[in-house]
UniProtKB/TrEMBL annotation:
The gene is rutB_1. This is Peroxyureidoacrylate/ureidoacrylate amidohydrolase RutB. GO terms for molecular function: hydrolase activity. Residues 10-197 form the Isochorismatase-like domain. InterPro entries: Isochorismatase-like_dom, Isochorismatase-like_hydrls, Isochorismatase-like_sf. It is an enzyme of class 3 (hydrolase). It comes from Paraburkholderia nemoris. Its EC number is 3.5.1.110.
Amino acid sequence: MTPAARTHRTAVLALHYQNDVLHAQGCIRVGLAEDDPARERVIAAAGQLIAGARQLDLPLIHIRIAFRADYADLIQNCQIFRQTAQLGAVKDGTWGAAFFSGLEPIEDREHEFVLRHHRTSGFIGTPLELLLRKLGTRHLIVAGVATHSVVEMTARHAADLGYEVTIAADACAAARAEVHKASLASMSLIAEVGSVASALASEKDSR
């Protein structure tokens, strides 16, 4: 008789930790200047979140955005997507679309996954919801860049689907600090907003 699959109440979503978004030479760079210390703080916090998820044996789902070189799969119906094409950003198979060094997935780890999408919600056009159901997940720790786009859209989508959501705010960033803060304030109505350390500590304490 096959043993019952283990369930994982909490999973971590790591969103858009890619070169074009985080690297100083990236096309998008979430608006952080090359010498802005905020860049290193966000990268360090993201690293702590990813390492913490692995240490606690939490499912870790990396979601990356990437398009064909000719952007034939990019629906340019709004400014954020038109600008992506104008910048020549996140073309699949290029350095810019690859994961930032140190934040890349371990693809042979049992509960670590990589999904690719083309919109701002991590749920649109991906098997994310089916994967979370298979894992038995009801709580998501969400972080990534940018705060007001992929993080907020994914968090709101998750909340509408009935998931409990925690935002690891120090592992998120936006083009401007005030936009980041406003997005976090807005998400506080549908999610618990804290730090990487508090999110991981809460998960550890709940065991």
